[in-house]
Amino acid sequence: MIRANLVIAPATGDAWWYPYPFLNPNIVPGGYLGVSGYIIGIAVAIIGVAALVVWVGRRRAASASSRSPFESRTVQK
C-alpha cells in the first residue's frame, strides 16, 4: 500500500500503481476505508474456508478412529 504511491503505472502513466483494482483507494468507494473493508472481507473468507477444511478433516478422523481396528470391510463380489 505504501509502495504503490511511489510507482508510476506502466499502462496508464498514473502517479500510482496498484496490482489489483480492489486495492486502489483512488477508485474504491470510501478510499482507504473501502480498501480495508475488502482486505478484511478476504481475510474472513480465507479463515472461514480454512476452518471448514479443519472441521471436515477432524470429523473424518474421528469417524475413522471410532471404528474397531479389527473391523474389516467386506468386499462383495
**Main sheet?**
none
**Parts with pLDDT < 50 across at least 5 consecutive residues:** none
Helix content: 40-55%
Strand % is: under 5%
Classification by helices and strands: mainly alpha
Q: Which shape, going by the Cα principal axes? A: elongated
Mean pLDDT: 87
The H/E string reads H
Gyration radius, in Å: 24 Å
Count of folded domains:
1
Compute the number of strand runs. Answer: 0
Number of helical regions: 1
Terminal CA distance: 63 Å
Describe this protein with a few key phrases.
77 residues, 0% strand, mainly alpha, 1 helix
Task: Write the topology of this structure.
Blueprint: H1 32-65
What does this structure look like?
It is a single chain. With 77 residues, the protein is mainly α. It contains one helix and no strands. It has one domain. It is 44% helix and 0% strand. It is elongated.
Task: Give a brief outline of the structure.
Helices cover 44% and strands 0% of the residues. It is an all-alpha fold. The protein is elongated.
